[in-house]
Hints:
The structure is a homodimer.
Chain A: E1 10-14, H1 16-25, E2 30-35, H2 43-55, E3 59-61, H3 64-69, E4 77-82, E5 94-98, H4 103-115, E6 120-124, H5 133-138, E7 147-151, H6 154-161, E8 165-168, E9 175-176, E10 186-190, E11 208-209, H7 221-232
Parallel strand pairs in A: 2-3, 5-6, 5-10, 6-7, 8-10, 9-11
Antiparallel strand pairs in A: 1-4, 2-4
Helix pairs in contact in A: 4-7
Amino acid sequence: MKRYRREDDNSYALGITLTFELLKYAPDRAKRVYIHSKMQDGESLEKLKALCKSLNVPMEYGDKPFNILSQKENCFCIGEFEKFSRPLSKDGSHVVLHNPSNAGNMGTIMRSAAGFGVTDLAIIKPAVDEFDPKTVRASMGAVFHLNIQTFDSFEDYSREYGDRNLYPFMLKGRETLSNLKFKKPFSLIFGNEATGLPDSFLNVGTGVLISHSDRIDSLNLPIAASIALFAATADDFR
Amino acid sequence: MKRYRREDDNSYALGITLTFELLKYAPDRAKRVYIHSKMQDGESLEKLKALCKSLNVPMEYGDKPFNILSQKENCFCIGEFEKFSRPLSKDGSHVVLHNPSNAGNMGTIMRSAAGFGVTDLAIIKPAVDEFDPKTVRASMGAVFHLNIQTFDSFEDYSREYGDRNLYPFMLKGRETLSNLKFKKPFSLIFGNEATGLPDSFLNVGTGVLISHSDRIDSLNLPIAASIALFAATADDFR
């Protein structure tokens, strides 16, 4: 066992809550469950054993994987899984992340997207690893129930899924979010944390601005994406 | 010089951007600016020197404070400041954080609050330190232009500022956010990251629910607070 690297075929769900999410929402990808010697006997462990048995997922006892994979002191369970890709839904709404660079941010956006019922995520490379254990953790397991597909360029995404309402979020956007009525199916498109979307997106769909006071330079990326998700799906959650 | 502790009178803005925010928005609290030997000469440093001179803030050169105060490799400037408290505005709208436990989350909420023009923050103890360097950093400097006041209990806050529209955000809230028309001045009230608001808030003002799908247990706290801030101030940013 080695430290996780992006080129590996497998990644890890750190902690028992995440491991349950893995077994529940991506059972065919679960390879193995590691249990630390400090893991307490009890209902959770019994439930986990039963679930692993029914899914035919082997359990392994020992502390070594934890020293290698986890920095957290209270992580006593790790789920190993094979990485996967699920094609996006053609007629569902999407979130599109263009060159995202932070694993925690990507995971948080996955969590919000799942929360607002947008279950398809397109990632335009270069991008941070959607299966990095940090991404998985920040997603609180949402990574296991979203459809996630990566693309080499926005053009590639557009060619496959572009026949829809495209909303790039930009400081130069012509529409303000509070005034906009979204049409479905939509794609909410967000740029990199530091640089935003390139100007080429001025020619894509309807540019949207989240207006804010001049006391801050910008909202942070997962905040902006989550506000957009809330606004775009408000009619579904009244 | 020692590591920062909560009981200290002074705290630190790590990095040059934050130090500028300090000098700009809380100049009377700035005590000293530390410069690392790797700080590059150039426009920024000249501007910083001029500003410190005009504000009578001493500059100190040397690497020692950086070894003690900063874990980041690219932090070459630190602003030391005296902690302060500014009373809240009686007729402005507020964010109220009840027992928040994470410095990064608190800072992110400060940034969003400043972004949506809600410049008053009440913190109900026990709570994480609003001047922890981690809070300061996550706030991107918003901590220097908000009015922030801490209270021993919600009753204490209520006694001083309670004559307003109170909106506790709870899973048991009766109104859904998408349907609610906020009345000003308002207080948006949020509970602890793990436990939310206690049931006693069911008797306070108008309880609000941010509806979401059952694919997630909850939204993360700064996301929920920022969505609420966006919705409550939408009319100001059309």
